[in-house]
Amino acid sequence: MSRGTAALAVGDWMSAKECFALAVEQAGSPEALDGLGRAEWWLKDVRGAIVTRARAHRGFKRLGRFTEAALVAVWLSRELRPLLRSDAAAEGWLARAETLAAAAGDASLLGWISLARAEAASDAIEAIAHCRSAVEESRRRDDPDLEIQSLARLGVLEVAAGRVDEGVTRLDEAMAAVSAGEARDLASVGIVFCALMELGELLGDNARFADWTAALVEVGGGHGFGPLDGFGAAAGYGVLSSFCGACCGGLYLVTGRLDEAEGELLAAVRDLETHEMGFRCVHPITQLAELRVLQGRFEEARELLGSYEDLPEAVRPLAVLEIAVGSPEAAAARLERRIHELGGLTVAAFPLLTVLVDAHLSMGRSEAAAEAVSKTAVVAGLTRSRRHRAEALFAEGKLAAIATRDDASSLLRQSAEAFSDASLALQACRARLELARTLVERDRPVAIAEARASLAAFDRLGAVPDADAAAAFLRELGVKGRTGPKDLDLLSKREIEVLRLVANGLSNGEIASRLFISTKTTGHHVSSVLSKLGLRSRTEAAAFAAIHLRSDQSGNRENAPSFVPPAGAR
Predict the structure, then answer these.
(1) Which helix (H) or strand (E) holds 409?
(2) Rounded Cα distance, 16 and 45, in Å
(3) Global pTM?
């Protein structure tokens, strides 16, 4: 069994599983079952791990080893709540842990119980109090894993509540402990990295993540983090997906790297489906849906969100979709409900506030929009985040433009520059397009130049609705926006993809499989293409494509990963 323990320590999960499985077969000890369950968890057999470690719990309890049994009960509670969405079972196991801790007379368990309580709490103040208690217990009992995990969770909660400096310091301390090799369990390393990614999303800035991954190479490279050694290496976050792919896709989405976001999110969804488990933090389906809205694939976004509307993280993509399809009233109501639920988590509410500004402006509610704009400015002042400053300037600029204020152009120019400084290309182009609208009367040539530059960037990024809006604005000015045949200018990028595949002789079902959409959605796209181009049949569409689409843009997706939305989401 010692070989299995050594394999776990270096992240050789398969060898660990084999060693512990043999030990279970030979002796069936609770230690062997516990080790086997840990290996299964890392191999993403979460359901198997839960069953195996529940058997270990029974074994420990039968032998009167209440401390070990209680620790496993805490672990089961923490897994059942987020991954299998079973609050009743999670509460039951946590109560069991408390009973066993009392029976063992072991106060060292109280910290782990407090951490589990913090993760379960819906009230921010309560969660922060539990985390602080866990940190105190970890230091009293010299438990580095508990300290690292509690500091990481406390840091995220404090940042979300607006205590930015305190929260960032907590996370930095947790990362310092990891880099020093203090963690005994590799899960602690993964958890603190996830917290660091969550911090990046809260602040809209992944610089701290990049700084720490670089520092780990220098300071902590010799400690042996197994497969976690490559977290966030080089220019991407792909290796992090071995622990939580949704985090990576979320960061790519925030920074406008839509193609990379799509790859990570599709992989994360497939991973959850393959292993029949829930999601650890944010469901990748909700992020994929927001990506589909950015790509102009509204019906697909609606299909994806159909089974997940009750999730807190679905609020923003649903609101973005509702605004895009002309229902800002529904978006505003949805956003205001969720902001109220967040209570004191002012920073966590920021991404909702920026969308709420757009919803109110769409309805002509200037006073309500101004209130939301004011709140974005407060959060930006708290976080001192470059992205938040840019978003606050953009919100103020849009409000000023609606009110035809003299400072509208200046605010929008500042926001575009701030977005560029923060490497947020999509948002920078949106600000430039709004700037162009304010310059039409005063400086038409600059307005045209800004709009053309935005259009080119939107096309490059794959932001179809934004590109269509920029092209329409240029047409209003009597300027041709896109190059190429006039009729193709009427089609979205997705419709051009469909046209290419129709020209290749694919059926609607085959196109759906290639493009990861339903057959019904494919039919809508085909009908739209025929209608916009004034064509009567697929044969005419193929002939049109042969003339107007270059062969080097075949749209071949043979090597693209296949994805079908989960049952109920189609």
Answers:
(1) helix 408-421
(2) 14
(3) 0.77
